[in-house]
Amino acid sequence: MPVITDNIKKTLSESLYLYYSTLKNGDLAVLSTIMTQESYHITLESLGFKRAFKDLEFKELLKNIDSSKEDLHRAEKIISCDLRADSIERNINVADFESNGNDRIILHYNEDGNPKKMYFSSSSRKWKINHKAGRKTS
After folding, report:
1. What is the mean pLDDT of residues 99-112?
2. CA separation for the pair 65, 30 (Å, rounded)
3. What is the pLDDT confidence band of residue 136, given thresholds at 50, 70 and 90?
4. What whole-number percentage of the chain has pLDDT above 90?
5. Percentage, residues of the chain above pLDDT 70
6. How far apart are alpha carbons 19 and 124 in whole angstroms?
7. Separation of alpha carbons 13 and 97, rounded Å
8. Which residues touch 74 (CB under 8 Å, ≥6 apart)?
9. pLDDT band at residue 88, thresholds of 50, 70 and 90?
10. Nearest-CA neighbor of 92 among 12, 28, 31, 37?
């Protein structure tokens, strides 16, 4: 289990706040740098779900983001505009940190008073948001 130092706590907390800031501002270029590629694509799919439900062309675009850079960029542009239009302000408070196997940490926090978790993994000494890091390792 990794030792969770004050420096790691600071890094993960900053990533959490940056995550919400980039969502509010629709800055997906920054969001893609703080997440693993797979987690970023999962996030795009969830952010685009509402639009995909109403817009079949956009739904097809989302299906192809893993295989087509062009479709990825088009989807990012549309989702970014939607996020800026919504511009939701959230109250985020870090609560705790928990090791979850080698090079994995769970950040517990509250979003508008509701308990949440953000999963991180470390690769090459860099921490990134990784939705799949929530899985237990042996």
Report:
1. 92
2. 17
3. low
4. 84
5. 96
6. 21
7. 10
8. 61
9. confident
10. 12
| Closest C-alpha among 58, 24, 20, 36 to residue 127 | 36
Q: Where are the beta strands (DSSP E) in the chain?
A: 92-99, 104-111, 114-123, 126-129
Q: Could you give the 3-state DSSP secondary structure of residue 44?
A: helix
Cα separation, 128 vs 137, whole angstroms: 17
Q: How far apart are CA 107 and CA 16, in angstroms?
A: 9
More confident: 89 or 16: 16
17 within 8 A of 92, measured Cβ to Cβ:
yes
- pLDDT value, residue 137: 56
pTM across the whole model: 0.89
The residue type of 17 is: Y
Query: Diameter of the chain by CA atoms?
Result: 47
Q: Is the pLDDT of residue 27 over 80?
A: yes
- Degrees to nearest 5, angle at CA 94 with 89 and 97: 145
CA pair distance 7, 128, nearest whole angstrom: 14
**SS3 call for 35:** strand
